[in-house]
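Hi everyone,

Forwarding the result from last night's run.
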Amino acid sequence: MSDKRDYYEVLGVSKDADEKDLKKAFRSLARKYHPDKNDAPDADEKFKEIQEAYAVLSDSEKRRSYDRFGHNSPGGSPFGPGGFQGFNINLDDILGGDFFSNFFGGGGRRRSPQSQGNDILVRHEVSLKAVLDGNKDEMELDLPAKCDDCEGTGAKDGVTSQCVECDGAGQVRIRQQIGPFVQDSVRACPHCEGSGRKYASRCKSCSGDGTQTESQVLRFSIPKGAQDGTRLRMRGKGQPAPHGKGTSGDLFIEIIVEEHPWFERNGMDLIMSLPLGYSDLALGTSIELPHIDDKPLVIKVPARTNSGDTITILGRGVPSARGLGRGDVVVLCKLHMPKKFDKKSKKSLEDLRDDLAGSKDLIDRVIDDAEERRR
């Protein structure tokens, strides 16, 4: 005896259910148990069981055999020695209105999407100052354009004729038998490459490609506060549509911010390290550096600054892309250790060793440093 469930029970229909009832039950259950919508452990098996039940009951010959013999048909499984393997049914097809027309034959005609050329991506380096100011910029590029001689058709003098294989539609319908199902699919016509038009002779100017290269100067504005990797879109400046029919793609300019000699960027903030001698850290100092806003950056180092301390200079960082002011400059103070000491400097340091170490012993200094760090 087979341990399979009754097909009518699987679909939840009576034994006198007509084609309309079967379709309605199958669609409802397929939506419920499709693996893309149901993550239950047994969803795959239930979905396959539903498909198998519908595959048998929707076929009049298989249904008569099943009604007479059940799962123990004299000829074995109606799906061959391997049994039912299931079909790759997309959830969108089940949820959409064309499911049965696509998978079981018939159905209305689909409109082909408008042809569009490919997009083009170029990278353009800018300085940190350009990001601060939001400069206008330009670049000269050799870009593909529609061939003037054939108007993008690829044909000599632009003369084309309607493709007889697809009647100018650019698409052909292919019907394929998959078990009990008839699957219709629409594909680009291989004879005219989806254009719906054919030509006898190629255009000599573009060798039938339909495009030519033109040098173009592109002018654009760099957004204030632009991040590394920001992309600017120029509509219609990409690859022309195939065969001269449709719209051109877009051109994307990816902004690459050049590395600054000493600043690193963290969002709107600029971070730098400042190597200082021991005297400057101990006694304090004031340092002036050139800055990206053309105003001197004055860094005031207070006396008794430790290596690793930071100094924040407000409002001198990168502007916000939303126009909400500027970030800060964060300076990390570091002790600069010379690679070599001359004899005089070494002697002076030896004389000052105890004074520079302070009156406390090493353990006390370690404890004091830990307490300061934890505040």
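Residues 31 and 94 are 7 Å apart (CA to CA).

Cheers,
N.
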